[in-house]
Amino acid sequence: MADEQQVNGAAQDEAQPQQAFQIQRVYTKDVSFEAPNVPEVFRKEWNPELSVDLNVRNEKIEDSVYEVVLKITATNKLGDTVAFIAEVHQAGIFTITENIPEQQRAHLLGAYCPTILFPYARECLASLVSRATFPQLNIAPVNFDAVFAQHVAEQQQRQQEAAQQADA
What we know:
Blueprint: H1 2-15, E1 21-34, E2 49-62, E3 65-78, E4 81-96, H2 102-131, H3 144-167
Antiparallel strand pairs: 1-4, 2-3, 3-4
């Protein structure tokens, strides 16, 4: 009887395809650093205003294979003077099988993959800034789950507004 259960269990496993997520590769796709007002900014009192912009995009490159790119742009100003602009496009190639539900796949691409890429991008930006002899750049961790949830909520609100306008 135990053998029968094992055989039936194996048959069920074969009938249900495995859901898979796999990191194939993580790489830096593009890097940019500009310090347009050097050496003048080195002579000013260092009281910077840092702004950090994040952007995530993904593209299906073949069946079950996606490229996700996390773009981080850090702009540091001293008043109206730009001290530096550093930008990194950190990318990864991920396998996400087609049998994963669409909502879960969207979450993987919009939140989980960027969470994997973020430490690499942050380290690359910090290295660029350090090599230019500016004070250390520390970018706070980002909760990509919360960012993704906010994005989904905004999309749903836009769809509701569009539906209401179409009905009117």
